[in-house]
Amino acid sequence: MKILVLAPGSRGDVEPAIRIASGLIADGHRATIVTHADYEQSVTATGCESVSFTVPLEPPPQSDDSAPGARGYLAHLRSYMLDHARAALAAATDGGFGAVITNPISPYGHDIAEALSILSAEALPQPALPSRSYPPMIASNLHLGPVLNRGFGRLFERFPAPIDGAIAHVRRELGLPKESRLAGIRRRLRAGLPVHHGISPAVLPRPSDWPSNLSLDGFWWPVEDKDWTAPSPLVDFLAAGPAPVLITLGSVDAAAGAGATAAEFVESTTDRRVIVQGKIGENLAEAAPDRVFAAGHVPHSWLLPQVAAVVHQAGAGITAACLRAGAPGIPLPLHTDQFFWARRAHELGAAVTPLTDKRVNRDVLKSRVEEAISNSDYRRRAAEIGARLDDGDSTAPLRRWAAACDG
């Protein structure tokens, strides 16, 4: 059976899709992943077919090199989602698909499935249904307790979202009647839409107010390249002294905010060796090559067990990777679900108190790093949880669903 997998978003959204698709391929299915052109090589390397689009996730700077602002960023996100939706429609017109799998920001995949008269399922790396157990992911810093959590979750569902235009476009192109995003969500949930979460119950116990069609399948770990070998300079750096601190902040820029704070920490903390990943890396490494190493994309399953602690932006993927590796975390959440994961890792005893961009400075960050390293309870607790995460094939529930669709 041919299965269409929609994966707009960053690498943290694409890697779970590749893991799921790889499991489907192992069962004899054909998987087509619709994702950004930047990830096309990663998709095809695992035997998946790729359909790509080109609008970048991050908006370009304005003519004066300033950030576009909230309004400009939302406008760019609408263009990004529309470009992905058009690519998904183009893939669907090839025909022959027997099922569709969506992620949190591609609900129009269900509309495509409806038009094709086939089944669909959701594959989510974070919880989305309003619940007493967590706040809405779009504003997960607002953890207000059981009653207000669910109330705010329902309220935020009503807010306009950048994907609304893409949903309307897809339904219009497919000749489907108009339907709001919220109406579609509620209709599908009432119908028992399978909603799979790439989360381990060891990290998030199943909320008691979830309906039966929601499941916790376990983390969808990145697919490992069996031919990958660690770069010799990185191996040499790791062997040359004590375990370093890893700072991995993805696309966060070193010019301002959390990126600037991390850069100041690296420059001023001469008694710690550091590995940096992302945009903040290269200039720092050039300034202090004896104690700072700029690493590119390195499998975290290999790197994290070798570091003393990890400063990270607390996305779902990096938070889970720290737990799996038994690495103490210093969460620096910036937006959306990152506050939820940062708080959860701290509640589990595997990370220090999360730092917010507004409160953090280099001295506070240094203090949190020293706390994470000197207090062995963080590493012990992370290792205890990590030991419970490799507990079987997390793609099995979706693979069973696909088999039933094919039957």
Proper CATH architecture of the largest domain: 3-Layer(aba) Sandwich
Spatial shape: globular
The domain count comes to: 2
Largest sheet: 7 strands, parallel
- Note the total helix count: 16
Strand content: 5-15%
Low-confidence stretches are none
Per DSSP E runs of 2 or more residues, the count of β-strands stands at 12
Q: Overall mean pLDDT score?
A: 92
Helix coverage percent of residues?
Answer: 40-55%
Structure keywords:
Rossmann fold; 407 residues; globular; alpha/beta; 16 helices; 2 domains
Protein topology:
Blueprint: E1 2-6, H1 11-26, E2 30-36, H2 40-45, E3 49-53, H3 69-92, E4 97-102, H4 108-116, E5 119-124, H5 146-157, H6 164-173, H7 181-190, E6 195-197, E7 214-216, H8 232-239, E8 245-248, H9 257-268, E9 274-277, H10 281-287, E10 292-295, H11 300-303, E11 309-312, H12 316-325, E12 329-331, H13 338-347, H14 362-374, H15 376-386, H16 396-406
Parallel strand pairs: 1-2, 1-4, 2-3, 4-5, 5-6, 6-7, 8-9, 8-11, 9-10, 11-12
Helix pairs in contact: 3-4, 3-6, 9-14, 12-15
Describe the model.
- The protein has 407 residues and is an alpha/beta fold.
- It has two domains: 2-125 and 160-218 and 391-406, Glycogen Phosphorylase B (Rossmann fold, 3-Layer(aba) Sandwich), CATH 3.40.50; 232-386, Glycogen Phosphorylase B (Rossmann fold, 3-Layer(aba) Sandwich).
- It contains 16 helices and twelve strands.
- Strands 3-2-1-4-5-6-7 form a seven-stranded parallel β-sheet, with helices on both faces. It has a five-stranded parallel β-sheet with strand order 10-9-8-11-12, with helices on both faces.
- α3 runs parallel beside α4 (108-116) and α12 (316-325) packs across α15 (376-386).
- It is globular, with a radius of gyration of 21 Å.
- The mean pLDDT is 92.
